[in-house]
Write a structure and sequence with these properties.
The structure is a homodimer. By secondary structure, chain A is α/β, with parallel strands linked by helices. In chain A, about 45% of the residues lie in helices and about 15% in strands. In chain A, the strands form two sheets. In chain A, strands 2-1-3-4 form a four-stranded parallel sheet, sandwiched between helices. A four-stranded parallel sheet of chain A has the order 6-5-7-8, sandwiched between helices. Chain A is elongated and about 70 Å long. The first copy, chain A, starts with a strand and ends in a 7-residue tail after the last helix. Chains A and B meet through helix 1, helix 4, helix 5, helix 6 and helix 8 of A and helix 1, helix 4, helix 5, helix 6 and helix 8 of B.
């Protein structure tokens, strides 16, 4: 027998990010089924709809069970086509849009849609500026622009500072610098001098020794850098540094980058620059 | 009078990314209303629910119209609390989860949820590796690792290569290098030699002269670099390079980073490494 198997389609006339985000969030609540997801973006013509239908029907046939289809299609003709596939269809907008329209007293205009939201020039500029800020101020490369930072992430090497900085930039337009706490900083036993003037912008990342060892071993297997002793020593010193200086910090060992970024926003009260 | 005003809340016991993504996508279809969105993540205790209720009620009172609440709360007690606020409540999971449960013959387990999806170590590693790959191979800094790239983005300076590379890494785990086509490359009138062995991985970004002028002026106002003539010249040469070498390319002038990345995946047929 084995675990039951279901194909899942996330379909949209745009990027399909909405359909995929919601669909995955719902499916994560069902265990014991092997979901096989497929994303079909830009289904914006009868030809593309026909192609999607063929993929769906083939999956249903192969699985011996109806594929699940999450869609956010707005064109009625295209939506009707996709709904005609041999599948268990979940129209995400259905219901919600009608109720909101009644409450607001406004008719929806599906074709204006969200596609160009992020292209309005202020948003675009904030994102790009934030990305370049994160790059220019990554890994302690430069410290002289910390006065322009919204936050300065600190932590030991490979605690997740760089991806978190970039995610904060791309998703929230936040200018995040990051500074690695090195052995030299640790031996100094005090907050590195260069960070002192920006103490109120510091945010510490903490990580479990086990996780740090695993991540560092991917990078330099069996090195001192990746040894349990070394990782423990650095983490203990950094924890003391956070506590001695009242730096807010977060254990990111069990967190996705999305969670880390959202928690940082929540804990610091920082304002997003976009969205 | 002015434009009607509505507060909107995206509420979840996790990051609230699902509630926010779907909510924004729906609201973008309603024009003529000034939506004021607020995100409240991690509503996972009665105290936090009470705090959310107070924010919602205050907004409804101030606006003189019920706030819209998009939520993906799974705990019944907390959900009931938030539903008791003076608001127009849109329970996103309602309906969808029940239908899927019947179809699958499986009871949902809301508490397993998705929070830790991205922490499974393969996914985490793929994302982080891809981010570091993008950083190490950004802006033509190094070209010797292009054999390990999934794609090499090319284009003129400030056509969006860097943020697109980083987004491809963070969202899809794709290893994207990027290489700026410089004046020197243009004067050479052929594909830069360093790109020749990787011709099948190249993807070109195109941008309108107007947009490029605007973006470059933000960086170096009134420079030759940002002048209309210079931008036109570079763009024309690069367009010829794409066509002469059968490099697929995309006009990104009116696109968000999400759209650019999704289109590149679609046009190249590249496989995601995560999700």
């Amino acid at each position: 027998m084995g675990i039951p198997y279901r194909s899942v389609f996330f379909i949209s006339d745009g990027t399909a990010i909405t359909a995929e985000t919601l669909g995955r969030s719902i499916l994560s609540q069902f265990s014991g089924i092997n979901f096989e997801p497929r994303v079909i973006p830009y289904v914006d013509s009868p030809e593309r709809a026909q192609n999607a239908i063929e993929q769906i029907n083939a999956a249903t046939l192969a699985d011996g069970a109806q594929a699940l289809v999450f869609d956010t299609l707005v064109d009625p003709e295209i939506r009707a086509m996709v709904n005609s596939a041999n599948a268990f269809n979940l129209d995400i907008y259905e219901g919600l849009i009608g109720r909101i329209s009644s409450e607001l007293g406004v008719e929806p205009d599906p074709h204006q849609g969200q596609a160009h939201d992020s292209v309005d020039s202020d948003t675009y500029k904030s994102r790009i500026d934030a990305v370049h800020f994160a790059l220019d101020n990554d890994d302690g490369a430069r410290t002289r622009h910390y006065d322009m930072a919204d936050v300065v992430l600190v932590g030991v090497s490979r605690s997740g500072k760089t991806p978190t900085s970039l995610y904060l930039a791309l998703r929230f337009g936040i200018r995040a610098a990051n500074y690695p706490i090195t052995e030299e900083d640790i031996d100094y036993h005090k907050l590195p001098k260069v960070l002192l003037p920006h103490k109120d912008k510091l945010f510490g990342l903490e990580i479990s020794p086990q996780r740090l060892v695993a991540i560092r071993n991917e990078r330099k297997a069996n090195s001192r850098y990746a040894s349990v002793d070394q990782c423990r020593r650095e983490l203990k010193a950094v924890r003391n540094m956070y506590e001695d200086n009242q730096i807010p910090f977060l254990d990111v060992s069990e967190m996705s980058i999305e969670e880390i970024a959202t928690r940082i926003l929540q804990m610091t009260g920082m304002k997003r620059r976009i969205g």
